[in-house]
Structure formats: structure tokens, C-alpha cells
Amino acid sequence: MNDIHRSLASTLAACGIAVVLGAPARAADESSWSQDTRSAIRLIAGSSKSGAASLRAGIEVKLQPGWKTYWRYPGDSGMPPHFDFSGSENVKTVKVLYPTPHLFSDETGQSLGYKDRVIFPLEISPQQPGKPVRLRLKIEYAVCEKLCVPAEGSAELTLAPGDTTQDSELKAAEARVPKLTTATQMKLTARRVRNGPKALVAVELDAPAGQPVELFVEGPTPQWALPIPKPVRATPAGHALFSFELDGLPPGTDPKGQFDLTFTVVTGERAVEVKSHLD
Fold it and tell me: Where are the alpha helices (DSSP H) in the chain?
């Protein structure tokens, strides 16, 4: 502190006015946009309490009108997003959450993803809690209109405890992530009803009467590409029945084996994620 600053500080202190010199700059609430030809991505920060074991953030993807991008399982076509956080500082783990996707149907088949805009919530565990986190993201994803084209982007953002202006947007995205529940609670069962090279699997579950129900299925690893289940009509009220062929298995997988499957059930604005075993 030079003589002028020291003299000013002494004068203000004598008048009972507190002085803070050299206060650290507050972390930004969002990164700059990383533009691609038909889309853009950025990182946003969520509010977090001081001393919290994890920090909250999100990846926001903005799409041009008429274009879409994909969920973690894209369906009949498309490419899931790939996230790379390896260049981050003071980061132990990053968990990416996926809001409930929209089911798109066109002449090429059915796909799962998002249009206009989506935020993927993040749960970040620091290596050293209480110290700032520098989150660096590289993302590869696909955007589609009639044809699909690859896209990529990068962003970085410093995260620190405190309130942010992006928290309400992040909370809205977190609320759209399917809630974990059990097959018993949903009364969901999956069973083979036809054997052969492509066995037919039937999935039955409880569902509110009079509301449309969508069902998506994923295999034990990302290498699986199971078809999107099709609804079976004329089911009793309060029940939903779907079927799909056991197709799209990784090479060398025995279709007669036992598998753990993940189902996402969408009923109106409500979505849940259910693990079930196929014997």
C-alpha cells in the first residue's frame, strides 16, 4: 500500500468507514458462448453453499430453429454427446445429468433428444473442497435437421460457493431429470415372450389412466442400441404394455443371457428411471 492509499485508509477509518482493499473478483455466472455453425454451448454456474461437498453447474446448448441434438441414447439414429473435463483444475469427478428427452419420429425412424435449447446439469466433486474449481469442458455432439452434422465446442468457468443469476435456469433443468425409482414401485416387469435370434420382450407397468405414456430402454453399457419400445394397444385402464425386439446387442453377446436394463418412463411432465433385470 503506497502513502496515498495508506493516508486515505487512515482518514476513512477515523471516520468509522470500513475499507476493503484488494478484494478478490467474484467468479462469473456463465462462460462465453462457444459457437458452431448451427449451435452454441456454454457453461453456467449454480448456487452452492460454502463448505458443500459438491458444486452445481450446467452445460447449456442452444440450437438454431428446426435443429435438434441428442440424449445419452439417441435412438434409431444420431450420436450422443461426449463430454471431456480432463483439463479441469481441482476436480475429482463430474457427473452429467440428462433431462427427459423428446421422442422425435420421421421417415428415418425414431430418435431421442432436444430442440431449441437444453441444459445438462452437472454435479462436481472438488479434489479440495472449499477451494475454487476451474471447470474446463470439451464437447463433441451432433445436430440434425434433415441431415446430421457433427459439432464441437469448448468452455471454461471458475466455480465458487455463493448465489448465481443462473440458478433458477439450472434448477428448472434439474427438475426435468427423471427421478430414480424401483421396478417394485412402478410394478414394472420385463419378460421374453418370444425366443429366437431376436427375442421379443414385453414390458408391463402401472400408468395413470387417460395419460399418454412413453418408454425408453437402455442396455447395460453404451455399446447397446436397443429399439425404442412400441406401445401395445387395448391394455386395461391403469396399465401400460410395451414390446421391443432384443436387437442391437454388442457383437458376441448371447441374446439368451440375463441382462440389467434401464427404463425411462415418461407420463406427461413426470419422468422416472427404473432398473430391471431380464432373465
Answer: 3-14, 167-175, 183-186
* Beta-sheet pairing, 179-182 with 102-106: unpaired
Question: What's the CA dihedral at 46, 47, 51, 57 to 10 degrees?
Answer: 0
Grid coordinates of 213: 405414456
Distance set, CA 4 to CA 11, 227, 259 (Å): 11, 73, 74
Query: Which pLDDT score, from 0 to 100, does residue 131 have?
Result: 87
Half-sphere exposure of 140 (CA within 13 A, CB side): 5
Q: What pLDDT, in 10s, does the model give residues 142-200? A: 999 988 999 999 999 999 889 999 999 999 999 999 999 999 999 999 999 988 778 89
Cell of 221: 453399457
Amino acid identity for residue 260 in this structure: D
114 closest CA partner among 154, 147, 151, 143: 143
Instruction: Locate the DSSP E strands across the chain.
Output: 34-35, 39-45, 55-63, 68-75, 82-84, 93-96, 102-106, 109-115, 117-125, 133-144, 148-159, 179-182, 189-194, 200-206, 213-218, 230-231, 239-245, 259-267, 270-278
Phi, psi of 175 (to 5 degrees): -70, -20
